[in-house]
Design goal:
This protein is mainly β and about 110 residues long. It has one domain. It contains 2 helices and 8 strands, in the order E-E-E-H-E-E-E-E-H-E. The longest helix is centred in the last third of the chain and has 6 residues, at about 95-100. The relative contact order is 0.23.
Length: about 110
């Protein structure tokens, strides 16, 4: 289990966002692999190492700059190491977008 999470069932978790809101995320392969990664995968992002949290669908009910662009849209969220919670990249909507932006799975040692 990742810090700041509550596993609801095998395909759903609650997780804290960057601004402290608790959202529900779909962690199923069916949802996450549409973006090119599985939940809990360690990856490299443009701002450093992160863990894939899952897919959030719908409003965040938050007006902070991190959450505002996510309203009513499916997004793959990540927890960047040392950040206070999960966030997402609004310009990445498919595996090709993530690859072009420099996202990649970290080598498994």
């Amino acid at each position: 289990m990742i810090d700041d999470e509550k596993l609801i069932n095998s395909e759903t978790r609650e997780y804290k966002t960057f601004c402290g809101k608790i959202l529900i995320f779909d962690i199923s392969d069916g949802a996450c692999l549409k973006f090119g990664f599985k939940a809990d995968t360690k990856i490299h992002t443009p701002v450093g190492r992160a863990t894939v949290i899952g897919v959030h669908v719908g409003s965040t009910n938050c007006d902070c700059s991190i959450c505002t662009n996510s309203r009513f849209v499916k997004q793959l969220w990540f927890h960047v190491d040392d950040d206070p919670g999960a966030s997402y990249w609004s310009n990445c909507e498919c595996p090709e977008d993530f690859e072009a932006a420099g996202f990649r799975e970290l080598n498994k040692d």
